[in-house]
Write a structure and sequence with these properties.
The complex is a heterodimer of chains A (243) and B (569). Chain A is an alpha+beta fold. Chain A is built from nine helices and eleven strands. In chain A, strands 2-3-4-8-5-6-7-9 form an eight-stranded mixed sheet. A two-stranded antiparallel ribbon of chain A has the order 1-10. In chain A, helix 1 crosses helix 8 and helix 2 runs antiparallel to helix 3. In chain B, strand 8 and strand 9 form a beta hairpin. The chains are: A alpha+beta (243), B alpha+beta (569).
Chain lengths: 243, 569
């Protein structure tokens, strides 16, 4: 079935609320999923894959382990980037504002591909950002220029060993400066696949025009999560609606 | 412009009236001036008026279809509440022309409303119920060759009332962003929804004429055009509208800022005195509002008292304008002085009526603001802000929230929640009704208070720290801080009221939003829902393209011309 963006946003917000996400978190999580889906990064498939662990998660956020000047280390406590992503990017941006550049390493965190929307959102506040992580034999890099609405998304062959589900965020005033400053950490060689901003824009426009295709089972699963935030209707409760 | 501390009080917002910037007014201006061509391509109704109608709408930038289904409805099942599942009329506004296949698809889904699914070719889905008091009466009169009595019409003001108009992507429809970017004719907030209601009004008038003609082909007459203009569309609005105002603070800020800008421009225009022409128009406008308020029929005691008080105060104003007109002009009296006098001496509702009337006087200064009613609604958190600055900001911008004593039982006597019945928002009584643990986060004042208290505690240990580090420690406050920082950059937006107080009056929220829609004749049915009238007094489709003076606000009973008599019999 096809749903609209607004409809999916409303459903996801309530579904995440049903999973125990708090105000702020459920808006951010919904935005991350929808952004990924509409820009062609399979956000709904990722969500479907993530849901089993989200059902049992305790809605933990990232914990600060260390903070030295422009570097911080966070522990994601085996949680999802849907819960830790905003904190991580915001900390990196704050460090960059104070120190000229910021680098945050988030360890032990899942569903890292969802981070794209958080980067784009932060880029609207005069920051350039790069996210980098390794999954199996692939490395992934998302780069957003300051003020840009789409990132460049690249995949690389990686021989590096993934350090505990880590995600690195680098922030500076412009992308060239960020790439230069952190080149040792984020220059894994030529990409084997790149998704350009134009591809993402086309995907977004198509879905805006036609609606977003969603698997019936996932939609039904979201409905069940939404039901968690609804209150049983009684004669008494109808009085609270004006009867 | 007026400060938020004055404008954003809930009882003042609940006293707003429509203005030139209201969405119905701007839509009508656009349709008439651009001479939109609206014709029925299908009018397939049986003799009782049940069937299908399709109208093709040729606007300035595009073609659209308004598709309507008329069904028999047992009066026993006629229910205005959101939870209803049958209606007299159901309708959809679609992009482009509708072919047979799409019409069949719509026929299978539109009558089901929330229980159906449509697609992104549809902008708006709506429904309407007949007025038990007027529809049969009007049809009977027409059938007998007579025009209906205007006094009877005035009691209600419409033949049908709509109980919901869904847009913005609900039920598979087109997203607002698609409508805004692709269809300029409807690229203003709620323009497509308002148009759908306008078309319902058009159909309702055509429907009455049609049924009367079917019943008595030889004797029936058509409704007189002046009477037609006096018919609007009824509307029932309940709590479903209330959370919108809290959840869209940047949009509300934009609407109110434009209205306040319009008012400031009007006041400035009269800063060095007034002339006879403008004073005459103002006096005539005042007389008209007095009559309008006197013609409102409501069973709500409080609304009746309020209408009476506003009338008395406006009569005082009109008398003064008529008696002192020359002195007012000679003394270089300004609108600012009148506004100040009203604020010191008259009720808030009178003040806001006067403000709407002042805005009305200066279309050349005001109308351009209609293009400024939409806004990007992204909220942004500023992570590098020091907690010291954030604390100062809360104390400065949210002093109203910090002034509320939430330790008092009544301060948290209510809670808002979504019912499992169509997710309808409802208001519960704390510790009495079920669902407190699932309440919606609409208590902005309490949220700010809790956030502020946590910041103060955290700062005792980390006085130099920033927001980013605070939300690492207290992640559940990221939403609150994001809103606080965002709204601090705008002048209006947050309603300065404890919305979970046991005595909260949600009807003020409804009235505020409805005033921006442009409705009139508020008829509260309880503190939780209100009936009102849309498009009463507005031009008819047959008026499009003709010379038009946009003055259909505060509608009053028509004085029928002699030609109306000739149509009888």
């Amino acid at each position: 079935m096809r749903v609209s963006r607004n409809e999916l946003t409303a459903s996801l917000k309530k579904a995440f609320e049903g999973l125990g996400f708090s105000v702020g978190d459920y808006q951010d999580a919904a935005a991350m999923v929808i952004w990924s889906e509409m820009h062609g990064l399979n956000g709904l498939q990722q969500l479907q894959d993530a849901l089993p662990s989200l059902y049992s998660c305790l809605c933990l956020h990232a914990k600060l382990i260390r903070n030295d000047d422009n570097y911080a280390l966070l522990n994601g406590q085996s949680s999802s980037i849907l819960l830790c992503g905003s904190q991580t990017v915001r900390l990196a941006c704050a460090l960059a504002r104070q120190q000229g550049s910021g680098q945050v390493q988030l360890d032990n965190c899942h569903n890292r591909r969802f981070i794209a929307q958080r980067l784009v959102s932060a880029a609207q506040s005069d920051s350039a950002l790069v996210a980098y992580w390794v999954e199996g034999d692939r490395a992934f890099k998302l780069s957003v220029e300051s003020g840009a609405k789409q990132p460049i998304y690249s995949e690389f062959a990686s021989t590096a060993i993934s350090a505990d589900q880590s995600l690195m965020i680098f922030v500076g005033n412009d992308l060239a400066a960020v790439e230069a400053k952190f080149s040792a950490a984020i220059n894994p060689g030529p990409p084997i696949e790149t998704t350009s901003p134009d591809t993402m824009i086309n995907s977004y426009n198509d879905m805006l025009e036609q609606g977003i295709e969603i698997d019936d089972n996932l939609w039904h699963e979201l409905d069940n999560l939404v039901a968690r935030v609804l209150v049983e209707s009684t004669e008494s409760s109808r009085a609270g609606a004006g009867d | 412009m007026r400060p938020a501390s004055q404008v954003m009080q809930l009882n003042r917002l609940g006293s707003f009236h429509q203005s030139r910037l209201s969405f119905m007014r701007t839509l009508v201006r656009r349709m008439v001036q651009e001479n939109w061509q609206i014709n029925s391509t299908v009018f397939d109704l049986d003799t009782e008026g049940y069937g299908t109608a399709v109208y093709e709408v040729k606007a300035k930038y595009g073609t659209y279809s308004y598709v309507l289904f008329s069904h028999y409805l047992d009066p026993e099942n006629r229910n205005d509440r959101v939870i209803a599942d049958q209606w007299d009329l159901t309708m959809a506004l679609c992009e482009g022309s509708v072919d047979a296949e799409q019409l069949e698809f719509l026929r299978n889904n539109v009558p089901k409303q929330e229980a159906g699914r449509v697609d992104s070719r549809v902008f708006v889905l709506s429904r309407g119920n007949r007025s038990g008091r007027t529809f049969d009466y009007v049809v009977d009169q027409l059938t007998q060759g007579r025009q209906p009595d205007v006094d009877v019409i005035a009691e209600v003001g419409y033949l049908y009332r709509t109980t919901a108009a869904y847009g913005s992507g609900k039920l598979g429809m087109a997203d607002w962003e698609k409508v805004r970017t692709k269809h300029r004719d409807f690229a203003r907030p709620f323009a497509a929804e308002m148009f759908t209601c306008f078309m319902l009004r058009h159909f309702s008038l055509q429907h009455a004429d049609y049924i009367a003609a079917q019943r008595a082909p030889k004797t029936a007459v058509k409704l007189d055009d002046d009477i037609k203009r006096y018919f609007g569309i009824g509307n029932s609005t309940g709590l479903g509208m209330a959370p919108f105002l809290i959840n869209h603070p940047l949009l509300i800020n934009q609407w109110i800022e434009q209205r306040e800008t319009a008012l400031a421009r009007a006041i400035m225009a009269g800063r060095e005195g007034l002339d006879t022409a403008i004073l005459d128009r103002f006096a005539s406008g005042t007389a008209r509002v007095i009559q309008h308020l006197g013609e409102i029929s409501t069973g709500d005691t409080q609304q009746n008292i309020s209408n009476g008080l506003v009338r008395e105060e406006l009569q005082e104003l009109e008398h003064w304008l008529r008696a002192e007109g020359k002195n007012i002009i000679d003394s270089h009296y300004s609108w600012a002085e009148l506004v100040q006098y009203a604020e010191c001496n008259w009720h808030i509702e009178t003040q806001e009526v006067i403000n709407s009337m002042l805005i009305e006087l200066y279309p050349e200064l005001v109308d351009e603001l209609e293009e400024m009613m939409a806004v990007e609604e992204d909220q942004h958190l500023v992570p590098q802000m020091s907690l010291d600055d954030l604390k100062d900001l809360i104390e400065d911008k949210y002093d109203w929230a910090l002034a509320i004593d939430f330790s008092r039982t009544e301060s948290q006597g209510s809670f808002w929640y979504r019912s499992e019945e169509k997710m309808e928002p409802r208001l519960g009584q704390t510790y009495v009704d079920m669902g407190m643990e699932k309440q919606m986060p609409l208590a902005i004042g309490r949220m700010v208070r809790e956030c502020y208290d946590e910041i103060c505690i955290y700062m005792t240990e980390f006085p130099q720290q920033d927001v980013a580090h605070f939300i690492l420690q207290q992640p559940n406050f990221s939403g609150a801080i994001c809103r606080i920082q965002t709204m601090a950059r705008s002048q209006y937006g947050d309603i300065r009221e404890n919305l979970v107080h046991s005595d909260v009056l949600p009807i003020h929220l409804l009235r505020c939003k409805l005033s921006f829609f442009g409705v009139s004749k508020f008829d509260p049915r309880s503190r939780l829902w209100v009936r009102n009238t849309m498009f009463q007094g507005a031009p008819l489709i047959s008026d499009f393209g003709k010379p038009f003076f946009d003055d259909w606000q505060f509608p009053i009973k028509p004085v029928l011309s002699s030609t109306s008599d000739s149509s009888v019999g």
